[in-house]
Fold this protein.
Amino acid sequence: MGTSSSLLDENKSNYIKGQVDEKFNKFAPIYRKQYSLAYLSKIQDELEQRKNEHTQFLKQRATPESGKVLYEESVRFFDDGRKWKERYIVIRACNVVECHENYKAFLKGVPPLHRLIPTGGTILTTEEKYMEMIDQACPGTNNVQEDFAPSVSGMPGDFPVYLRLPYRRDSYFCFRKEDSQTEFISILSDCIRHQNKDFLKKKTCEVKAFLKAFQLYRQENGQYESWDMLIGSDVRGLANLFMEDLMPYLENELQSCMKSKRADKRRVWFATVESAYFLLQEHLMLRLNTLKEECKDMAKQQEALMRSDMDQITNSRAFLEGKLRAMVAEPATKYCTEQVQPYLPAVLEEVMGPISLGFTEARDLSEAMMEQLYQDFDDADQKEELRQAMFKMSKANFQSCYEKVSGLADHIQELQQTFNYCIKGLVNNTEIDLKQLMENLEYTFELHVRKALEDPSINLTMAMEKASNRVLKQFEYDSSTVRKRILQEALINITLPSIKKHLAPSFKEELPKFEQYIFADYSNFISVENVYEDIIQQILEKDVSMVVKEAASLKKFNLMTESRYNFSVSSLSFTPPGSAPSSPGHLNTSPSLRTPLPPSPLLGNGMTANKSVTVHSLRSESSTPSQALPVMEKINEGENKTLLEESDDVFATDETSTSNTSAEAKPELITTTIAMDVIHTPVIMVTEATESPGTSCSPKEGDATFSDFANKPTTAISPICMKTSDPAETENSKAAVSSDDPAQIKAPIHDESTYPIAVCVSIEDVESGDIDKEFTDKQVMNLPEKASESQSSYLEDETKPLGCVKEIRDLVMEVIEVEEVLQPCKDNGEKAQMLEEPEAIV
C-alpha cells in the first residue's frame, strides 16, 4: 500500500540503521555458533542414517504449488484514496493476498495493485472492537474524534472485515452477503496461520540456527518467557524484536505531533511506524543475508573435519555433558519436583480440554458430511454430482472447531500468571494441525470412494459407509498421535522458561568455566550453553512424559496408549495407495513383520562337544515354522563351544582336545530315514552319545530316532528328509551294500543327490582330564513315528526311485573322509579348525 518514507528524515533513518547494526552485531556471533551446531547435527544424522519417523493412517494430499489459486472473488476494497472500490481479490497457495484492478486485468496477467502478506494479522468484523485495538496501539489518542476507520454508514455492504496488521497499514473489505464474508474470513485466517508458523517449522540449518540464536539472544537480555511476535520469516521476527526497542524512540520523536490538535494524528503515527518498520526490515535483510552466506562458507570449510572427527566430537560433548550434569542435575530436579511437577496435571487438563473439543467437533462435522454423501448418492451413475459434492466437502468451513481451540486463552489465564506463557502460538499451531488432519480425512475418504466407483459390481452406498467408518477409525489414531505431540510440546514450552529463569542466577556465571573441557579444534561444534539447556530439558521431559502417559492410560480426552494403537492398526485392513512406507498400515500388512520368527539357535554360542546336532531341511505345504519350535527349544547351550556355520545345510562344532582320533575309534555309521513332512525351516536335534555294550545295531523299522551312534558323540547332518520308499526297494538296496562297508545303511531310495538322505558324522570328543569319561547320560528326542495320511500322499508324489546305491555309498564315504579332517589341537584351549563342506553334500 505504499510507504511514507518522507516522514523519516535523514537523522531518524541513520539512527534506526545504527540501532539495527548495534543489535545485530550482538546477535551475529550467536547465530554463527548455532549454525555450526545445526550443520554438525545434519552431518551426524546423515552419517547415522537417522530418519524422522512419521506414522499416520490417513493419506495426505500432495502440497499444492505456491501459485495455485485458493480463492478469487470481486470484493469491495477500501483503497489509498479512502474510497470503496470494486477489486478482484485473489489468494494463492503461498498465502499472499493479491488485489487486482478487475477480473480482466487478472486474466491478462497484469501485476496486482497490492500484494498483502497478512503475517500477524487480526481479523475483526465490528468497528467497535477494531477501534479498541487502534487506541491501544496509538499513544495519547484515546477518545480522539478522528475519521480513522471507514465510516460504517458509507459502506457498500453490511458485512465488513477489518484486517489489523502490526507495524503496517490496515486493510478493509466489505461484503453484501454473510456467506461471502464467512468464506473470505476462513481463507484469510488460514493464510495468517500459515504465514505465522510455516517458516519456523522448517528443518533447515538456517531456521534451526535462527530459532536457537533468537532464544539465546533474548535470554541474554533476561527475557526467558515465550513471545507471540516471533512469527513469519527470520527477517520479520528480528524486525519485530528490534521494533519493540525502537517504539519509545519514535513516540518521543512524534511527541509534539501527538500533543497537537491535529485531527489526523493517528494516521501520522501509524504511517511513521510503518516507514520505520520497512526501513528496519530492508537494512536487516541485507545484514542477515550476508551473515547466512558467511555461515554457509564456513560450514563447507569445516565439513571435512566434522565427518572425520565425528566420534571425537561426540565423545567430547558427552564428557562435557557429564561434568555439567553433575553440577546441574540436583538443583534442576529439585525445582522441577517442587515448583513444576505439581502444576503439570492442571496444565494438562486446561490445555487438553479445549484442544480435544476442537478435534471432536471436527470429527463430528466430517462424519455428518460423509453420512450425508452416502445417503444422497446411492447410484453409481451420479459420478459427476458425487465428485462435485466431495469437492464442496474439501472446502468445508471448520470455524466452529477453531473457536473451541481458541478457548485456550480463557482456560489457562491463571496458569499464564504462574508461568508467563503466551498462548497465541499454541493456538495457531493447533489450528494448523487440526486443519491438516481434516484435509487428510477428506482426501482418504475420496480415495476409497474413487476405488469403489471403478468397480460397477460394488454397492456404492455400502462402500461409502464402510469407507466412512474406516477413515473415522484412522482419524482417532492420528488425532491421538497429534494431540499427544501437541500436549508434550505445550507442557515443555509452558514450564521450561521458568526453570531456566530460576537456575540462571546460580549457573550463568559458572558456565564459561566449562569451556576448558572442550578441545580448541572442536570449539565451533560444541556449545556449553546448549548442553546445559539440553540437560534441563531432559530432566523436565521425564516428568512431562509421565503425566502424558498417565493421561493416556486413564483414557482422558480419548488419548490412546501404545497397546491401543496396536489394536487400531490391526483392525484396519486397507492402506490407501501411496502411503508412506513408515505408515502403520504398511507396517502391519506383512505377515512376516507381524509375526517375526525367533532367531536361529545356530547363531548362538556355547554348543557342547558331547552333543550331536541334527539339521533337518523339511518341506511341506502344511508345515509351519511353529512346528519346529519345540525341537529348537530343547537345544542346550554348552560351555565355551562355538557352532560354526559352513553352509545352509552343514554345521560343525569347534572342539578342544588333547588326543588324536584314530581310525579304529570310529564307530559304525548307521543312517536311518523316516517318513515325515518336509519344510524349509531348519530343525536342529541334539542327542547325547549313548552307551552300548555291544556293536551298534540298526534301528528297528519305524524307529523315530535319527541315529544311535555308538558310544561316541556325534554330529548329525540331515539336509533333507524324505519318506521311505517301498519295502521291496529297501530290501534290494540293503542287499547291494557290502558287508565290509564302514557303514551299514538303511535308507530310502531316491533319484540322485537332489534328495540326499540323512547323514551322521562321528566326532571324537576327548576333553582335557576326561579322556576315560564314560558317556552314560542319554537324551533322545523322538520324532513322530508316522506322518499323517495327507502328508504321506503328498510325499508319495514327490518320491523318486534311485537306480543305484553307489551314489549313497560314495556320499557316506565322503562324509567319513570329512571326519578324518577334524584333528584335535595340540594345546588345551585352542579351537579346532573349521570343517569344510564337501561339495557332494548339497
